[in-house]
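Item description
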Amino acid sequence: MRLFANQVKTLVVRNVRLLAVVGFLAVLLLAVHWMDLRQGFSLTALRATLSERHWEGLFLFIVLFALGNLVQIPGIVFLAAAVLVLGKFAGGLVTYLGAVFACGITFLSVRWIGGDAVGQLQSKLARRLLSHLHAHPVRIVIVLRTLFQTLAALNYTLALSGIGFRRYMIGTLLGLPLPIAVYCVLFETIAKFANLNV
């Protein structure tokens, strides 16, 4: 009977935490919409932030990247703005810093609210996938970052999976440079071809 009661308690706590994460995302999305902040995430606004404010602009760009990641703004918008204003090398470096910071903030925020709710799932498929993740967390995060970069859904899922922050960040630090470099070169080439003033 005690075992059953513990299982029910674990199930209730997990579901409440998952609902809290959904509520957190909904509140953020509503706040961005209500305060009309979505315009601040446009390519034009991000370019202006980087080009007009120097160091203050860089700081604001990185903060916006973190907030944007929480509310599902694609990281490619930030990369495009950085490359258009700073070129592929400096733009890539600023994008990398912003992406790492954004991934870290998303992980910490979601973990604080949701704990390891996904890590507590009992389905066989979930247990098998999580066992691979927990067996080789850094390696798997590197592969996921290379494939999906700063995808917000990935950050939310990894935060709720129960892996440690240090291993998550090591995988993030090592997994982001290659795709960012490829996108920077590709985007700069496209921008030059389209005469977008890189």
